[in-house]
Amino acid sequence: MSLIPLASYPKSGNTWMRVLLSNYMAEEAEPVSINALAGGNIGSRHQFDERLGLSSAAMTGDEILLHRPRFHESLAAEADSPVFAKTHEPFQRLPDGASLFAPPSFSGAVCIFRNPLDVAVSFAHHLQCGIGRVIEIMGDPEAYLGPNRSGIYPMLPSLISDWSGNVSSWLDQKELPVQAVRYEDLHTDTETVLEAVADFAGLAPNPARLTLAVENSRFHRLSEQEKRVGFGERPPNLPNFFRKGRIGDWRSVLSRDQVRRVVERHGPAMARLGYLDEVERFLATDGRARR
Amino acid sequence: MIVSLQDQSAIAVELHPIHLPNARRADFDRRSYDYRAYGLNFNSDVELPWPAAAPGGGADVAIRRGAVPPTLGSPVDERGCWQAKPGAYLLAVDGASRWLATEGGRQVRVAPASTGGDIGVHLLDSVLAACLQMRGILTLHASAIATAEGAVLFVGSVGIGKSTLAAALVDRGYSLLADGIVGVVVDGGGMPMALGGFPLIRLWADAIDALDESWGQDAGAPIRPGIENYPVPARRFRAEACAVRTVYVLSSTADTEVVIEPLPPVRAVAALIRNTFRLRHLRGLGEQDNHLLAVAAVSRQAETAHLVRPGAHCPPAALAARVAERLPAACP
Predict the structure, then answer these.
(1) Which among B81, B93, B159 has CB closest to A152?
(2) Is A92 on the interface with B (CB under 8 A)?
(3) Considering only CB atoms, which residues of chain B are within 8 Å of chain A?
(4) What is the DSSP string of B71-107?
(5) Min distance A153 CA to chain B CA atoms (Å)
(6) Contact A255/B at CB under 8 A
(7) What is the number of other CB atoms lying within 10 angstroms of the CB of residue A89?
(8) Which of A53, A58, A60 sits opposite B278 (nearest CB)?
(9) d(Cα A152, Cα B19) in Å, to the nearest integer?
(10) Which residues on chain A are in Cβ contact (under 8 Å) with B126?
(11) Residues B147-166 pLDDT 10s
(12) Which end of chain A has less Cβ packing within 10 Å, N or C?
């Protein structure tokens, strides 16, 4: 079989999609444990080392990247059903010109996009930094998640690039079919979006299962579960991972200047995903109102 | 192009042996390196990133330059960069080197590529693990210290903090047994014994910064240029095998408290399997039964506990102090 990346810039609904798919595949009356979700991060250092027989700790970033396709081959070879794999990386070329997420190891990608203004609110909370700093990070084509060179973490270093570069890389690539999902649509009509993703992944959508999966994945259930048993993927120092899951928080959190900076930097990609009109109306209307 | 010393000598020996002056030929012929770890004598004509030992005794593992076929004939299992069958193991690192272990891990041949830089020699962890596994030795992703009442192991996945904790416990007077790969054999009485590895702890720069400053002073060159991971000699080291007393399964949490709680045997067995270094070798090598016997012996004879450390703002010395509250005294 093959792998299906759940690809998104951070804080765009990737974990929520994993929760939905996990509940869909489990088809249990009770919600699946948030600590046993399908679609774990494809950048597990332990898995990379163990499968390839290499020690990534002694390898440079480029050497690790060049060995990733073989790692993906190994994961795909053992999959007997569609295997979802979370990634925050852009679709990218390796130093030898090959694609990081190439067929046949990958058969298609579920790409989750979210209004970068809401991403900024959520990412700032996640990183425990200010909005200004997170806007800088979202504009940096060289942005990496994970370790610098002086330490080691359980995940391989992963490029996230800038928000525009990340989303455009997936929209522009021609090697994998893409099921594009907007966080906002997932929020508005969860069941329809999940049905499309399940169909895309060959999971034979079934209305009763869809309804059950959506019910078991509601935000209040996730945050209640997090309060009760904790969430292993919560970063240190963050009070809770499952926060609000709301759309449009940027209107009350970002300053008009911050909104403008995001639009200046990411306007074209926002337009491609249908986010720009609303924001431009906000800037125009709100500006007049304040005058 | 940067070519390491080993690569240069390989090129010279393989391409121009007839034209070398006799003195230099003799020099090459004599060049040999001895290492001792895991109860084994290693004799190598390739310099390895291990601390040298005094020559002596017969070689349990002879490492020689030589031709290595690109594949192992009729492997039982092959994944990633390796192939395995009972008694034999081959690791082929793209563009760098190939390693072939045969005769149950008694002979290892290495073919360094003429290009590829210095990566090959640093990826022999898997070859070492295979040589141990072919002898029925359980290989764990772990660090281990010796106490007056036996070995205490900290197992866990890469990057979880095993080496840093071991270093902080060495600062408290305990002796290092092994770091990286901990080898465990079951003796005639069914007791799991942790073997002494190399007297080194591999520490990352950020760990060195967080530890006592002596670790920084003792650190050697990084394992490779540009990778800030340093082998540091442990000031206290025990080479002799030591009965396994306690196994801590190490994980990290977003919370701020250190948690130590007993691990039920079933979960301990699962953790030992999950944290077996190069677990996937075992089927191909035909060593699955020996592995399970060793895992069962550890879970039966040793106390097992879950050690959860805060993922941030937990100085190694503070974590070591919490763990030390539950440890027997250091070896006299």
Answers:
(1) B159
(2) no
(3) 79-82, 91, 93-94, 119, 122-123, 125-126, 141, 157-160, 202, 204-207, 209, 223-224, 226-229, 252-255, 278-281, 310-313
(4) S-SS-SEEETTEEEETTEEEEEETTTEEEEEEGGGTE
(5) 5
(6) no
(7) 24
(8) A53
(9) 47
(10) 53-55
(11) 999 999 999 988 889 999 99
(12) C
pLDDT at position B56 is 77
- Chain A environment of B219 (Cβ under 8 Å): none
* Out of A53, A147, A155, closest to residue B126 by CB: A53
Backbone φ and ψ for B243, nearest 5 degrees, come out as -60, 140
**Mean pLDDT estimate for chain B:** 87
Judge contact between B61 and B108, C-beta under 8 A: yes
| CA distances to A261, B120, B253, B322 from B259, in Å | 44, 39, 9, 9
- Determine contact, residues B285/B85, Cβ cutoff 8 Å: yes
CB of A116 closer than 8 Å to CB of A278: no
pLDDT at B14: 30
Residue B116 confidence (pLDDT) above 50: no
Distance to chain B for A64, nearest Cα, Å? 11
A12 close to A112: Cβ distance less than 8 angstroms: yes
Contact by Cβ (8 Å): B162, B141: yes
Q: Mean pLDDT, to the nearest integer, of A281-288?
A: 78
Q: What is the pLDDT of residues A80-90, one digit of tens each?
A: 777 899 999 99
For the segment A56-77, the average pLDDT, to the nearest whole number, is 90
Nearest to A70 among B80, B279, B312 (CB): B80
Of the candidates A211, A145, A203, A198, the residue with the CA atom closest to the CA atom of residue A9? A145
Report the largest interatomic distance among the alpha carbons of chain A, rounded to a whole angstrom: 65
Contacts of B173 (CB under 8 A, 6+ apart): B236, B330
Sort B58 into a burial class: Cβ within 10 Å, 0-12 / 13-18 / 19+: exposed
Q: In B, which residues are within 8 Å of A128 by CB distance?
A: none
Burial A119-143 (b: 16+ CB within 10 A, else e): bbbbbbbbbeeebeebbebbbeeeb
Crossing angle of helices A207-216 and A14-26, in 10° steps, is 130
- Min Cα–Cα distance to chain A from B224, Å: 7
Chain B residues touching A59 at Cβ < 8 A: 119, 123, 227
The residue count for chain B: 332
Pairing verdict, β B61-65 and B107-112:
parallel
Pick the residue of A41, A47, A51, A52 with the most B CBs within 10 A to test the interface with B by mutation. A52
Whether A8 contacts chain B with CB within 8 A: no
CA distance A3 to A104: 9
